[in-house]
Amino acid sequence: MKIFCDFDGTVTVRDNIASIMKQFGDERCEQLKNDVLSQRISIREGVEKMFALIPSAKKEEIIHYLQETAEICEGFARFIAFANVQRIPLYIISGGMDFFVYRLLEGLIDEQDIYCNATDFTSESIHVQWPNPCDEYCATQGCGLCKPSLIRKLSTEGETTIVIGDSITDLEAAKLADVVFARDYLQQKCEELNIPHIPFSTFDDITAELQVRLGVTKQ
């Protein structure tokens, strides 16, 4: 069993990229977000264009803003403890950016278990880099950070793969997973496409479900 968990809007209550764009972007960001959600443009194209609208000089201001406003979802620390006790590998696979994902997860998840996008602040505006691209089996070839490719890379045959997510960026991973925990937009898409899934509100819900599946006595 291996767990692959989204970050923005899943580990954190709100989507951090959306929060950044609302606070530091302009009306063009909203249109790009809608284009991504409606799948008119790829996730990679939309995210790249949104961050290109924000000056690199805003880096520390953005980090401070997220540290003040980002809220970790209830039960996440207990969920990590449960996975550690059960020796279930837990990976964060995030379409978010390294400069804030690492900072917000500091002390919770080792950086070696976090996969996210990279950022370059040497130019006038923020430039997004893509260290985890689509492999040859990806159906979309525009993911940016390709979650299905990472699942294929990090899993071995016979393992049960668990995906936890909330958004369009988790949809292709959900199609590949053995077990899906979904909320918000991902839940809607799973219902629409008849993808088996388990709705959740907090990470305590996920812990409770896995305890039942593993036959673990609740603490």
UniProtKB/TrEMBL annotation:
GO terms for molecular function: 2-hydroxy-3-keto-5-methylthiopentenyl-1-phosphate phosphatase activity. It is an enzyme of class 3 (hydrolase). CDD domains: HAD_Pase (cd07524). InterPro entries: HAD-like_hydrolase_phosphatase, HAD-like_sf, HAD-SF_hydro_IB_MtnX, HAD_hydro_PyrdxlP_Pase-like, HAD_sf. Pathway: Amino-acid biosynthesis; L-methionine biosynthesis via salvage pathway; L-methionine from S-methyl-5-thio-alpha-D-ribose 1-phosphate: step 4/6. Its EC number is 3.1.3.87. The keyword Hydrolase applies. Pfam families: HAD. It catalyses: 2-hydroxy-5-methylsulfanyl-3-oxopent-1-enyl phosphate + H2O = 1,2-dihydroxy-5-(methylsulfanyl)pent-1-en-3-one + phosphate. GO terms for biological process: L-methionine salvage from methylthioadenosine. It comes from the Bacteria. Keywords: Amino-acid biosynthesis, Hydrolase, Methionine biosynthesis. Belongs to the HAD-like hydrolase superfamily. MtnX family. Dephosphorylates 2-hydroxy-3-keto-5-methylthiopentenyl-1-phosphate (HK-MTPenyl-1-P) yielding 1,2-dihydroxy-3-keto-5-methylthiopentene (DHK-MTPene). HAMAP family: Salvage_MtnX. This is 2-hydroxy-3-keto-5-methylthiopentenyl-1-phosphate phosphatase.
